[in-house]
Model the fold of this input.
Amino acid sequence: MSELDVNTILKGTIGLTKAALGIRVADEQDVTERRNICRACCYRKIVHHKILGGDVAKCTVCKCYIKPKTLLKDEKCDDAPPRWNKL
Ligand code: SF4
Done:
């Protein structure tokens, strides 16, 4: 496994853990709006997650997994300018 893969998995795992712990989780409407923006974004990519064993959406700008990233109030889109912001 390459260093990039390990970093990517770690970053995604941290995001998932924060989401699972309920750390400043955005409300459903905001999450839906963010995910709709990501869904239409050219930087969104579907990748196979080796640990989860399924396909997940990932941002190729920040390398985050979109599902946990969009759940957290303190996250923002890392494109310039951001396509969505912190809440
Ligand atoms: S976080 Fe921003 S750059 Fe990444 S997929 Fe979503 S909208 Fe696109």
Remarks:
- The longest strand covers residues 44-49.
- Residues 37-38, 41, 43-44, 59, 61, 66, 77, 79, 83 surround iron/sulfur cluster (CB under 6 Å).
